[in-house]
Amino acid sequence: MTGDRFTLESLDEIVRTRAASEDPGSYTARLMGKGVPKIAQKVGEEAVEAAIAAALGDKAGLTGEAADLLYHLLVLLRACDLPLGDVMEELRRRTAQTGLEEKASRPRG
């Protein structure tokens, strides 16, 4: 992290370090030990909680739930051996065109 700037990459680095640790007090290490299905379940739970907070107009709740969702998503990416950089590159590629053009170019299925 540089200065006070905190990014998804900063969080990803923290997740990477903690996921590799054997610290019994690390929630990240414990989650990694439970495997992809449990981490994926947590991502789903946090997404639903974020959506509910948004629907209720609860900005404080949404802030916390969005933070939980981003964290758990990064843990899931790590558990699936999918680098955040790959996701960021996909977002960069998608934003190089309009949203409707990008959506039309996706495979149907």
UniProtKB/TrEMBL annotation:
Where is it predominantly found? cytoplasm
Q: Which GO terms describe its biological process?
A: L-histidine biosynthetic process
InterPro entries given for it? HisE, PRib-ATP_PPHydrolase-like
Q: Which Pfam families match?
A: PRA-PH (PF01503)
Q: Which UniProt keywords apply?
A: Amino-acid biosynthesis, ATP-binding, Cytoplasm, Histidine biosynthesis, Hydrolase, Nucleotide-binding
**Entry EC no(s):** 3.6.1.31
Q: In which pathway does it act?
A: Amino-acid biosynthesis; L-histidine biosynthesis; L-histidine from 5-phospho-alpha-D-ribose 1-diphosphate: step 2/9
* MF (Gene Ontology): ATP binding; phosphoribosyl-ATP diphosphatase activity
Q: Which residues form a coiled coil?
A: none
Which reaction equation describes what this protein catalyses? Answer: 1-(5-phospho-beta-D-ribosyl)-ATP + H2O = 1-(5-phospho-beta-D-ribosyl)-5'-AMP + diphosphate + H(+)
Quote the cellular component terms of the Gene Ontology held in the record: cytoplasm
Superkingdom, natural source: Bacteria
HAMAP family, alphabetized? HisE
Family stated for the protein in its record = Belongs to the PRA-PH family.
> What is the protein named?
Phosphoribosyl-ATP pyrophosphatase
- Source species of the chain: Pseudoxanthobacter soli DSM 19599
